[in-house]
Amino acid sequence: MGMNPRVDGCQLCDELPTRRTLDLETVLVAGASGYIGGRLVPELVARGYRVRVMVRSKVEALSDRWPNCEVVVADALNPSSLMIAMEGVHTVFYLIHSMLVGPKSFADADRSAARWVRESAEQQQVKRIIYLGGLGDKQDRLSPHLSSRMAVADELALGSVPVTFLRAAIILGSGSASYEMMNHLIRRLWVLPVPSWAKTQCQPIGLRDVIKILVGVLEIPETAGKIFDIGGPDILSYEDLLKTHAEVLGRRRKFISSPLSSIPFFAMMTSWLTPVPAPITRCLMESVEHDVVCEGRDILEVLPFRRISCREALVLALSREEQDAVHSRWTDSYPPDHELAIKLSELSGAPTYNSTYSLVTEKSAEALFQSISFIGGEQGWFNSTPLWRLRGMIDRMLQGVGTRRGRRSPTRLRVNDVVDFWRVEQVKKPNQLLLRAEMKLPGRAWLEFRVDPDEGLQRLSVHASYYTKGLSGRLYWYVFLPFHHFIFGDLIRGIEKRSEEQADGRV
Known about the structure:
By secondary structure, the chain is of the alpha/beta class. The protein folds into two domains: 12-327, 3-Layer(aba) Sandwich (Rossmann fold), CATH 3.40.50.720; 348-503, Alpha-D-Glucose-1,6-Bisphosphate, Chain A, domain 4 (2-Layer Sandwich). It is 37% helix and 20% strand. A seven-stranded parallel beta sheet has the order 3-2-1-4-5-6-11, with helices on both faces. The chain has a six-stranded antiparallel beta sheet with strand order 14-19-18-17-16-15, covered by helices on one side. Helix 1 crosses helix 7 (207-218), helix 6 (177-188) crosses helix 8 and helix 9 (263-273) crosses helix 10.
């Protein structure tokens, strides 16, 4: 690896008062494909570190995304794979967190993962573990999520490998679940009810400051084995945080005290108004019943750089969105098992059912693929958008992901990106886009867009593949089959029309 390879937009740590301390030693990022990990990895690379990213499933696109990194497949619940991942590693960044979207036994799974990581690190003689967890007082009745994070810290600390435990409250940044939840509430509601627990105090921290601190403690060996509370310069209530967000957006909103304070109720309502699903909104809300304020200022003495205010963090997040420069998003790790999903190429046997719709056009392959890359999110699905949204509403009622997740970028797609209730499985410009369904289904489904040469012209096609073994799965296919003719026919016609409008500069 070269010295200080530059990654576009990743020079945040140039402001740190520290310098790179490791030359040939390897840094392992566990949870690299998640929200924080997706921002940390390029910063470490830009800093000149030898980085190994740990993922649960091999994705070729990750090597393209992080060409200066080593990608290793390992699961925190699989000790043998962890031993391989940690071979020759100096420091492990432990960024694996549950957001209550998995099995009910998530707390046990979190603790088991921490135990296996601790034991593997000891056996492989890892020098340090850096863990980013939650801020909270153990004397309080913590939410299940915060309790699990504390238990992970306790488990990691049982070993001989020194652990740096960073405790953060709310992290403000483009693409975070907290930011998107607030952003959509402010944009959608003129009047916002404020429950009693929204008046508790918190100390948010900007995402870029979190990344700086993660890198900074790596570069200060004296931080090993210590606990640091990390937060921004502002201490304010959650109500005040919402008001600040409204001011940044330039929206005048009315805030009224709510006679209701039921967290399940507010979590459910918020999940319907925002892209963030109920399990995550509930998790976030349960974590704010008690004040979450930094107890000490030790980290400021260790890493003396200027922290950005809440207002600055919100302005930067909004700017990132407007510039189409959101590098990672909470959906990158939601649902948590998406990395282990069966790929179309891994399917044993051919899909049970298939349907294809196509047209021949004189438009170029590049123009057609650019139009394909705009589907979903705010752009929608052309004339059939209401039907897609109805399907999304049904999915949310079934505790699925729905369509409100939208997209990370309105114009660009990469492998593992979310497109409403689909996830990008494969991208081959300018010929193929393969999406994998993540809605609740009695089977597995894929949607493939192709642009192929056809006697001097281009054949634009959309191909639906569906695999099922059960009777309910077969019934599902035949119930929805009549809608395919309208939905997919409209889809390819809309893609072709938009490619022409894009070429003419009309969109």
